[in-house]
Amino acid sequence: MPDVNFDGITGYLAGEASSKGGIVLIQEWWRLTNHIRRISDRIAARGFTVVAPDLYRGKLAEDEMEANHLMNDLDWAKAVEDVKKTSIFLKSRGCQRVGVTGFCMGG
Q1: What is the pLDDT of residues 78-90, one digit of tens each?
Q2: Is the per-residue pLDDT at 94 higher than 70?
Q3: How far is CA 26 from the centre of its chain?
Q4: What sign does the CA torsion over 103, 94, 86, 10 have?
Q5: Mean pLDDT, to the nearest integer, of 21-38?
Q6: Is the CB of residue 27 less than 8 Å from the CB of residue 106?
Q7: Quick one: pLDDT at residue 104?
Q8: b/e string for 58-96 if b means 16 or more Cβ within 10 A?
C-alpha cells in the first residue's frame, strides 16, 4: 500500500479499511524504514489496519550518531500528538479499537 497523508502526518498504511482493529506502529530510531513497512504488512495480513506514522517528518538517519541525534531532538509532545491523530485516523477508517506498539522507539 502507498504512504498516506492525514492531518499533517505522513505514514505507511497497510490493511483494509473494513478492519475491526487498528494498530499504530511506532518506527525505529532510524526513521520509518522498509523493515517497519514489511512488519506493517505482516500485521495487516492478520486482519488489522496498520499505520506507521513518520514521527521524524521526512528526516532520515544514515548512521547511529544521526539516529541518536534525531531521537533525542524529537519533539515528544508533538510525537504523542501525532500518535493520537493516527489513532483518530484509524477510527475514521472503521477500526473499533486501536492499539499502539513498536520497536526501538515504540517498544
Answers
A1: 999 999 999 999 9
A2: yes
A3: 5
A4: positive
A5: 93
A6: yes
A7: 77
A8: eeebeeeeebeebbeebeeeebeebbebbbebbeebebe
Pairing of strands 9-14, 97-102: unpaired
CA distance 1 to 96: 21
- The answer to whether residue 53 scores a pLDDT higher than 80 is yes
The residues near 67 (Cβ < 8 Å, ≥ 6 apart) are: 29, 30, 31, 61
d(CA 4, CA 36): 15
- CA atoms in the 13 A half-sphere facing the CB of 86: 28
Give the separation between CA 41 and CA 28, rounded to whole angstroms. Answer: 16
DSSP 75: -
Cβ 13 vs Cβ 3: under 8 Å:
yes
